Structure formats: structure tokens, C-alpha cells
Amino acid sequence: MRRFTLPPERLVDGRVTFDVDESRHLSRVLRLRPGDTVVATDGAGRDYTVRLDSVGETTTGTVLAAAPGTPPSPLAITLVQGVPKGDKMEAIVRAATELGVVRVVPALTARTIVTLEPSRWRDRARRWQRVAKEAAKQCGRAVVPPVEVPRPYADVLALDEPADLQLCLWEGAIGDERSGGVPVATLAASLPAALPSGTRIRLLVGPEGGLSTEEVERARAHRWTIVGMGPRILRTETAGPAVIAVLQSRFGDLGTDR
């Protein structure tokens, strides 16, 4: 059944009103009609079966049933991603959402190429948030992960938020001559045999060109474990989703029965 998003404030006394974007998709793209049934998720873990009453610029419906949405992953993964150029961030947000992250924190690093005014970064963040919403709908997630406004790398590290495991990916881990003296280990060697449900993980990935040696040292000073991915250097839009997939496969819900 087709899925749509429904902010909680748009559900009143069993009646729903879809926003402009969803109404346009319902009416102009899918050409649904009154009487058709869809699933609306509130983005916070609950799904509603809705019968459409009116379809147009403003689409309304009646809730027929409510139920918990797809259970979240037992891992609470936050992706801290160095902002790449072009539309790569959209691909990263889409894949990370599909793989179950709970939050995306874009970081402006020494090798971030894009420079924008604060207002334009907010516009980018809103666009990335729309990508996360669409990805959540596509993959059946009941929770849409927030995508924050990009902030300087130093500010991200200064947050020092509670985490059970902090992993910083660095291609300098491949060889001693490139590692700049920073102690590194492979990802496999850095992971425990098991992780309990609810484990909070933060994953840090640099932009094109990776993190600088100074940035890696600063991450280590904030208790991040510096890890390498083996003999191959992955592109920034590949590295984060690849590690998230490994974590979800070993400790999360990737490949499990619903």
C-alpha cells in the first residue's frame, strides 16, 4: 500500500490533512481519488490507514486504523558526515536513512569544498531532510531521521554527546607512511563480539580527500576510535553506508525477519 508522511499536528479527531507536497503527489502524480486507501506515517513510529475523503491541492482523509510502525533498529546510529560537493550528500542521506540511522549531522571540515552563507546551508539541510523523508517512505520506515544544518567540525566534536561507540573512518589507516602517527585499527578489530540493544554509535566520515591528520588527532582526543576499511579507499558517498550496513548486519536488524 502507498505510504505518505503525516506530521502529528495534521491529525485531529481522526481526520487528517496532508501538506501541500503530499497532496500534490497524491493528486497529480498518483491520481488517487476519494475512497482510495493509503498508509500515513507520523515520522515518530506510528502508522495510520487512511481513507481519502477529498483529493486536490488540499487532501483530507479519515483514519480507519492505527498501529505501531516498523520497529526501529536496535542500534542508534548517528552519521557525522563531512559535507561533499555536488549532490553526493543527497545520496548519502538516502542510503543512511534506508539503512536505519537515527540522525545525520553534516560537518564542515578542512577539506569541505562547498562554502555557503548560513541561510543557504539551512536551505540545503531542508532539501536533505526532504530526501530523508522520501527515503523513509520508500523503505517503510516509521521514523524519519533528522538531518541537521551543517556546522563546523570543531563544533561537532565539542558536542561530546553520550555514545557507547565512536568510530572515525580514515583512509590514512591503510599504511604506516600515511597515518601520521595516529594509532589505527581495522574496522573488524575495533568491533566487539556483541552489542546490546539500544547501543548508541556515532560514525564519522570525511568528505572527498578525507579528514586531515589534525582533524583525526582531534577526534582521537575526543575519544573516537580511528579505524580503516582495509586495502581499498572508498568514496565518501560509499564509506558511510558501507560501514552502517556492516554494523546493522552484525548487531542490528539488516536481513532479519520483521
Q: What labels describe this entry?
A:
258 residues, alpha/beta, 7-stranded parallel sheet, 30% helix
SS content category:
alpha/beta
Task: Name the overall outline.
Answer: elongated
Topology, number of strands? 13
What's the helix count? 7
**Biggest pleated-sheet summary:** 7 strands, parallel
Give the spatial strand order of the biggest sheet: 9-8-7-12-10-13-11
Describe it.
The chain is α/β, with parallel strands linked by helices and 258 residues long. Helices cover 30% and strands 24% of the residues. The strands form two sheets. A seven-stranded parallel beta sheet has the order 9-8-7-12-10-13-11. The protein has a six-stranded mixed beta sheet with strand order 1-4-5-6-3-2. Helix 2 runs parallel beside helix 3 and helix 2 runs parallel beside helix 7. The longest helix is centred in the middle third of the chain and has 22 residues. The protein is elongated and about 60 Å long.
